């Protein structure tokens, strides 16, 4: 036991030493290795990458846990000397690198940060390294949030959030469906000051586009894009619409217009509104439509042909259509209720359609005249029907089914009058 | 994730297959894993080529990975390892294309070739270019006559192995795998999370 403790202490010292001299460590890993054969240190350190061999994990865990739980009481009573606190951090480093999901230990780190033993910037660095191996660990993300809030008390810092975004990107690349990483990203979006919000939304829209094209069957990416689109509602200024290749979109939708100015084009699409007579006054409609139509043509159509039978794409398409309709209704001052109506002869398939837990009502609402006569409504519905048709002709059975199901949804959602 | 990990060209001899050239892109894996992952991918390419009959195509799904193999009737073979989301159609077209290119440079006598003699830098270029399947799509449209129904799809590696063979035994017996890679394989099997090769 004594021998093992000495060994653990040695490993911890080495880890702490490496972390203190090199601030550019790229990643940490526990490397599967068979039992000890040679008398050599289990700490691996090459090319800015840090690792430990898996056999020493159990000894380290045992040693660090028993040490830390003991020291915890003293830490709370504040009866530790400066030197002891420093030593405590060394044990914490080892414990948290191996098993970062222990909130108690992160809380001890918080104590040490509060008593100025640890530097917030260095702690951000450390938690970044811990995250490279355990990329799905919520405790690390919440520790980072705490640190950032702490730094922000002194001074709001935009670069800090930028940094978090790239960290989230690596974490989501490393493990699939990384709920905590996406949540962290959304948290950044919500916490950034309003003056940067627009810049960030634009860069995030671009980011999510390229992320989605690389992770086509992961809904997390689509969900994040939906969050971004929903945040466009609050934007006060008008986007630079050139970004979205309006011409290409209109060509795809087979809509010809005499106007060049995007504002007029949107006006032509939406029709004349009694509620918002001047479209310039409400940038939100233009912003939203630009993104929604872009996604409808690019993500949902182009990617759909490249990657067959991905239900994600079809689900996202539903989201887009619902939102386009929402914009139209709101623009014309009509209250929009999204609900599905199941025709009585199809009651058996009710469960299938109600997967989204939507409110199913008996009443069949008419589409307001103003909405159904607008150009936008006509071309979107026409485009959807053509899209379904082109997918029905495919050899792929699954894709065929998805197209049929989508058609059914379009009818039930009351957007399409048959 | 849409990603290509490895492209290899092999020659299927009477008893075993020999490597002619391979290219890897293992950036996604951790630094300390890369060596083992590469060893496993090479091991797996060889194993699967040996178990594919000439003039046929197979696709094997294993965990989150896809392995596509094409052995031509003249015993030249190509293997692509990608993740599951990478479109299979593109992988198989890529295989035909690289094998054609390779034959242009080395028309015959593959039995005498070893990996050292072969200089075929195009393989790495293909690997980079095809990371984005959209880029490649222009080419795939021309080759849509690829008969997808003839590609045999297996849902595990075990399904490809001959009767009585077990992957665990093959791994244990293999000489191409280091002790560390074998340990890595065992852990991966147990946790079934980081790499299922």
Automatic annotation (TrEMBL), chain A:
Coiled coil: none annotated. Keywords: Prenyltransferase, Repeat, Transferase. One of its GO terms (molecular function) is protein prenyltransferase activity. One of its GO terms (cellular component) is cytoplasm. Gene3D superfamilies: Protein prenylyltransferase. The keyword Ligase does not apply. Transmembrane segments: none annotated. InterPro entries: Prenyl_trans_a (IPR002088). It comes from the Eukaryota. Belongs to the protein prenyltransferase subunit alpha family. This is Protein prenyltransferase alpha subunit repeat-containing protein 1. It comes from Henosepilachna vigintioctopunctata. The lineage of its organism: Eukaryota, Metazoa, Ecdysozoa, Arthropoda, Hexapoda.
From TrEMBL, chain B:
One of its GO terms (cellular component) is Golgi membrane. It is a lipid-anchor. It comes from the Eukaryota. It is found in: Cytoplasmic vesicle membrane; Golgi apparatus membrane. GO terms for biological process: endoplasmic reticulum to Golgi vesicle-mediated transport. The keyword DNA damage does not apply. Gene3D superfamilies: 1.20.5.110, Longin domain. Its main location: membrane. Vesicular soluble NSF attachment protein receptor (v-SNARE) mediating vesicle docking and fusion to a specific acceptor cellular compartment. Functions in endoplasmic reticulum to Golgi transport; as part of a SNARE complex composed of GOSR1, GOSR2 and STX5. Functions in early/recycling endosome to TGN transport; as part of a SNARE complex composed of BET1L, GOSR1 and STX5. Has a S-palmitoyl transferase activity. This is Synaptobrevin homolog YKT6.
